[in-house]
Amino acid sequence: MDYFRLLPEGCVSDILSFTSPKDAAISSAVSRGFNSAAESDVIWEKFLPDDYKNIISRYASPWVCSSKKELYFSLCDSPVLIDGGKLSFSLDKKTGKKCFMIAARELAISWGVDTPWYWEWISHPDTRFVEVAHLKAVRWLDIRGTIGTQMLSKRTKYVMYLVFKLVEGHEGLEIANAYVRFVNRMSENEAEERASVVSLVEEKVKRRKRNVKLPHNRGDGWMEIELGRFFNDTGDDGDVEARLMEIMRLHGKGGLIVQGMEFRPE
Question: Where is the F-box domain (predicted)?
């Protein structure tokens, strides 16, 4: 017997509010008593971030959903641009935690402004942003991205990634250093001493058997390399910065396309 059908809808809604988005989504398949409650805006609003209305007001283009459930899954499946296209925003489908990607144009890229012989800004068919950064040739590679912890989900462990592609003929990207730091807590020198070794070129490093972090295919046509991790407690830690750098071995580097830096729950 389906005992949940005997419960008042308000009681069922309260039960669902203590579950996960995934559990709420499949509840109607478990019991018809959950069916109407699982579609309730009251339930799905609890799974949305507390500041979702503020985020919606920052959309770069109009975007309308007929229900809170539709809004939730749309944000999970289709990142939206906010703040004039400077950021993309989405939700982790399992937890409802906030994900952000900073557009390449908003990153601090050494020699990336008004130096088209080093970096050029181009359109790309696969990017979610208007343009991406294309590294033509540098000896000093230094890319930074910063976000305020108050924007992120609280009590959440985040991983920060550089999202990129390599073009044919790329060079000098086998080894670099990366770190993540709270700007107000750790100096650049201290962070550099703790930096991890990463590679943007997986196959060459595998052959060398070095102890480095390797890139992964995202499944959307782009690659990503982990730059570091941090725990966002109450969102009161100010800015957090991620950095990819290769400033010690001053050989030529080129063939890198940067879409942005992503801050994603672990």
Answer: 7-47
